[in-house]
Amino acid sequence: MVEEHLRGRGICDERVMAAMAKVPREEFVPTEHAAAAYGDFPIAIGAGQTISQPYIVASMLEKLDIRPEHRVLEVGTGTGYEAALLGELAVEVWTIERHAELAEKAQVILARLGYANVHVVHGDGSSGLPEQGLFDRILVAAAAPSVPKALLDQLADGGKLIIPVGNRYEQVLQLVRKIGDEVAVVEAEACRFVPLVGEHGWRE
Asked: Is residue 21 one of the residues assigned to a domain?
């Protein structure tokens, strides 16, 4: 996976590739899909959600440029695969999942694998976790019609946020950087994610 789907497609961040080589992706997919866990495609994980394809995951992580001292917020835990990768890259990770059954599953898997620095919360990810203060990096693994202001407000000065923005069927990754009161946005590759459902995203 790392050599063919990541390095072979232009991913250069060695920390990202090391994390993806270490985290056992098969632990986060249903047993019947374990043999396909390292293919470069999304896999259904239940509740109408998917675990994203490895290349898109790596691309988002690389663009965020996560450092060991960073606090990270993830929106859209799923079964916890991306949260585990973030746990390898950052000092502390908070991750939100709106489906209770997936949040519970993620907690069990992450605890079993020893990710004590990753905290799973069941709730509306589009609202973030304002009670946890500001985050150096925010990764949104669900598609929004626009960048939620609630999440921008939780981004630290100099912080970066990455999110798929578009309609429910096709989006573009947007990398957002906050510097003082200014927000700069750079568009990256086209993508397709499940919708961000919540107060500051799409309605049910």
From this structure: yes
